[in-house]
Amino acid sequence: MPINVQGDKEFNNVTSIQNKALRINLNENIYGTFAEIGAGQETVRNFFRAPNPTGTIAKTMSAYDKDFSDAIYGAEPAKRYVTEPRLKAMMAYETGLIEKRISRLKHPNKLFFSFANTVATIDWAKKYKGHGWIGIRFQTAPKEEYNEIIMHVQLHENKAAQQQISLGIMGVNLIYAAYYHHDDPKTLLKHLYDHLSPDKIEIDTINFTGPTFKDVDNRLMSLQLVRNGMTDAVMFAPSGNNVLPANVLYKKNILTLRGSFRPVTNVNISMYEKSLQMFMKEHEVERAATEVIFEMTLFNLKAEGDEIDEKDFLNRADLLCALGHTVMISNFQQYYKVVDYFAQFTSEQIGLTMGVTTLIDIFDDKYYKELSGGILEAFGILFARNVNIYLYPAKDEETGEILSTKNLRVNNNTRGLYNFFKQNDRIIDITDFEEQSLDINSRKIHEMILEGKSGWEEMLPETVTKLIKEKQMFTKK
């Protein structure tokens, strides 16, 4: 018997939190548990306040005490409770329990779910803003394998009570969207912010799994978070799964390389390898304590106009993942914003690998007019911490001259600043390079691939060339 969890005329234009909870409560098939530990105990309250909560709520609980939580969901070896593994353990335990206790013979059409969150809100001293993991494990057909939507949120309001209210709203939005918008994950994402804004609560990681989402690429969901203004930056691992930036960057030395990577060329890899060697040697840091991030901005991803070609984005992502790299997508056009973002997670060394054209742009004061302190304010952020720039040379197309810090020309208004940072070894030339590699141009390579020409293969890493041919990437097909 088909179970109606799709839209209907009666509720199409009703979006209030109260009516979302009511619609769930009135659906005789949706039935599950709520487990909210830590500070996030507000979601189920919305369902209790709506009529007919017995139609939805099998059980609600809050194992606030850590010993009780361990006794129910298992001990946490690291004694950390606001984590993704804890959230998954909660949801798996609760759905297992409901399957065990509710008879399928008696309730053949039930769609079971377990909603859970584990959250720490802002502390009394306002030192820690608060964050948490929120998720739902749910069925869209009886006896179906479970689907999961798991996300991490940053809490930006200044009072714990306000953060709890926002968590409750987002929890209702998540449950409602899981059942009534699961067929369109992009729309689902947008509805998570009904009656909310990213100024209050920020989603910086989300992953969809299960049979309903078998065709969903979580990297595209990451991209949507940034495009929709739900967060400033997202990351995904070589596996393709979205990862929490804080987990990747926490107390790490960070080296980042920005580019369009359309496609990844031998120059990109040379920049990465040479700057990493210099970074580790100069700062005497271990590779295990260093994270290398390949960054693409929304601007990098826009091939033409304001639109982003998702297939083109996935081509680039596939290439970087195949090479084993962690990728960050951001809306940070200026580099000082990248440094400021990284500084949330680490006080260790930060390195920026870039080419000559990019460095010239950094010292152009026209890019900082929105700041009251102009370029000085931006550089106060960019160079205030342990930040070095590793400069890969370029070849002047007209003269053939190799451009480096020794002979490049920056904006006259900022030449003094440039000389100061260069003389203080904050801008360092990469000298170990192959001159012939400077003739490689990714835009020309892309055009050659698009037009079906040969001769580009040797300008790319072997793995990249093989993948482009196997998957017919960057073609007109």
TrEMBL record:
Gene3D superfamilies xrefs: HUPs (3.40.50.620)
Stated name of the protein: Nicotinate-nucleotide adenylyltransferase
Organism listed in the record: Zunongwangia mangrovi
